[in-house]
Sequence to fold (353 residues):
Amino acid sequence: MTRTIRTIAATAALAVAALGLAAPAHAAATTGLYGAADPSFDGVYRQSLAIIGLTSNGVKPSAAAITWLINQQCKDGSFQEFRADTTKPCDTVDAANGKGPDSNATSLALLALMSVDNTNLATNSVISSAVNAADAAGLWLAKNQHSDGGWAYYAGSPSDSSSTGLALAALGTQAPNRQQPNIVKGSKFLASLITACGATDGGALMYQKGSKPDGLSSAQGLYGLVGSVPVRSARKLGPAPKCAGNPTNKIASYLSSKLAANGSLASSFGDGPDYTATATAVIDLAAAGVAKTAVAKGTNALKAAATTYATPTTGTNAAALGLLLSVSKATGANPKSFGGVNLISALVQSEQK
Fold:
């Protein structure tokens, strides 16, 4: 359920969040924003994940938090990661420097806004504004689907599995039966990127055609096929599926095998565990109702890393807290004591006033 970490912009966002850097220049534009780190590259991303996590656990986000997200929307319905001055038009797309509207921010914002609507955790006026913003975001996503069925991170780039997964999950909140032509076409695009079952990492998703399959792409892609907001309550899970049959089974088989073996998914950049991808995979598998052992191992790994991942000494990681809240709902874990972290209070207290 996380943004695609493929560009300089995304890498910078992670670095900024890890360092906990404050952004005094943006102070006037951050009232209601969760987390104190500079929002330039991850504002909408972290706000969306935070709102999804809170609403999934029945916690009402403040009106200021929801309004902050709504106010970030561009005139055409899209979202970029942060607008310091919302009276000015959104930036022109500059993928190399992580500027301008992108499909990942738009999809996550739509998911968060629909989570508010689906849980009724706001006043009628705020919900009405959230639904209007979500409708505009959905129209923008529909217009920006590529002829191959997929979505790109930024306009002008090729379709990729991560962006397509997030877009499908977002559009699926507005079309629960998921039989609309654009959703069907997007699902077929994802299927075209699945590694053959007999191959190494069989069942995994490639980021783009010809690229090496990886855990993050697989987790975000599968979210497009099974994800929902708010996150569903924990339920009895079946065994891990075999790599056969429909795309959901194939991708789930890959993710479950990795989690069962290692407890976490490896970073696509080769620098240790990727807890964001791991959390997304756990949410996916729980939503699909499979892989009991893998879900348990993944959840335990996230609990063990919760303090350093979500509440490092450098500053609260609002996106991580939001994801872990979604994990807690999906697995039945206690959100007030997840690996020793009270996810709810840590997130709520991080809101900027």
Observations:
- The longest strand covers residues 265-266.
- Residues 1-25 have pLDDT under 50 and may be disordered.
- The radius of gyration is 18 Å.
- The first helix runs from residue 8 to 19.
